[in-house]
């Protein structure tokens, strides 16, 4: 397998709600923050990052729970700087095509903390007739790779548990996608330094594309909430 030179790190935030009868469920959840970071494996540093806010189509007004969790307001996703999901996908692809990721010397894989992000993107893209570039099928799961080296952590450790095992501190907001992207890059650096032969050093196999996102589960918020899958969103 070709050696990976870069990772395209993704971590989305989506519309959500709490309570016994939430207005937002897995069937109508929409991405509202679309950030990315590019990690250079050789340099062991982030060389590019960007954050886009996405305008939801199905439920334009965010719930109070969503704003409290993510810090994202209805005004932020309705501002002139916010974009539809199709535009966010296109802007990232334009960056990929014009960047080092598209050079002959580069081999990159998408990297996420769990399965939720790509499941949500694929399901929402299908519902909104958005065609995703082929590189979304080349992905690495941070949780799965971490579990290979820390089997006592279980199959689905949270990002907080992963950081704790590696003695890494988190800077920023736990449910800010861009801040989580940075934290994922910190974890990659720590794993590469401790385990030079880990899967991050080789290309990811093409992954299957689930037709829809799995049912979101409660994460460590202490609330019965319809938010990111606890095995996907950290």
Structure description:
The protein is about 30% helix and about 15% strand. The chain is globular. Strands 1, 2, 4, 5, 6 and 7 form a 6-stranded mixed sheet that branches. It has a two-stranded antiparallel sheet with strand order 3-8. Residues about 205-230 have low confidence and may be disordered. It contains 7 helices and 8 strands. Strand 6, helix 4 (about 115-125) and strand 7 form a beta-alpha-beta unit. By secondary structure, it is α/β, with parallel strands linked by helices. The protein has helices at about 65-70, 75-80, 85-100, 115-125, 140-150, 160-165, 175-195, and strands at about 5-10, 15, 15-20, 30-40, 45-55, 110, 140, 225.
Question: How would the blueprint of this fold be written?
Answer:
Blueprint: E1 6-10, E2 13-14, E3 17-18, E4 31-40, E5 45-53, H1 64-70, H2 74-78, H3 85-98, E6 108-112, H4 116-127, E7 139-141, H5 142-149, H6 159-165, H7 177-194, E8 225-226
Parallel strand pairs: 1-6, 6-7
Antiparallel strand pairs: 1-4, 2-4, 3-8, 4-5
Observed structural traits:
234 residues, alpha/beta, six-stranded mixed sheet, two-stranded antiparallel ribbon, 7 helices
Number of strands: 8
Number of helices: 7
The secondary-structure element order is EEEEEHHHEHEHHHE
| Main beta-sheet annotation | 6 strands, mixed
Assembly category: single chain
Q: How helix-rich are the residues, as a percent range? A: 25-40%
Mean pLDDT: 87
Shape: globular
């Amino acid at each position: 397998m070709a050696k990976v030179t870069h990772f395209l790190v993704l971590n989305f935030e989506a519309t959500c709600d709490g309570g016994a009868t939430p207005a937002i469920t897995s069937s109508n959840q929409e991405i509202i923050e679309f950030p990315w970071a590019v990690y250079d494996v050789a340099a062991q540093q982030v060389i590019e990052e960007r954050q886009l806010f996405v305008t939801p189509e199905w439920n334009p007004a965010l719930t109070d729970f969503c704003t409290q969790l993510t810090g994202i307001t209805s005004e932020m996703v309705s501002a002139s700087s916010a974009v539809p999901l199709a535009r966010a996908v296109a802007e990232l692809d334009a960056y990929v095509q014009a960047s080092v990721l598209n050079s002959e010397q580069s081999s990159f894989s998408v990297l996420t903390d769990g399965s939720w992000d790509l499941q949500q993107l694929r399901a929402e893209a299908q519902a909104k007739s958005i065609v995703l570039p082929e590189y979304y099928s080349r992905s690495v799961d941070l949780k799965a790779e971490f579990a290979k080296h820390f089997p006592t952590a279980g199959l689905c450790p949270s990002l907080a548990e992963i950081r704790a095992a590696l003695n890494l501190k988190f800077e920023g907001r736990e449910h800010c996608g861009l801040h989580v992207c940075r934290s994922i890059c910190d974890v990659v650096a720590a794993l590469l330094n401790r385990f030079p032969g880990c899967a991050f050093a080789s290309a990811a196999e093409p992954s299957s594309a689930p037709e829809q996102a799995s049912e979101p589960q409660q994460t460590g918020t202490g609330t019965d909430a319809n938010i990111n899958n606890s095995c996907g969103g950290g």
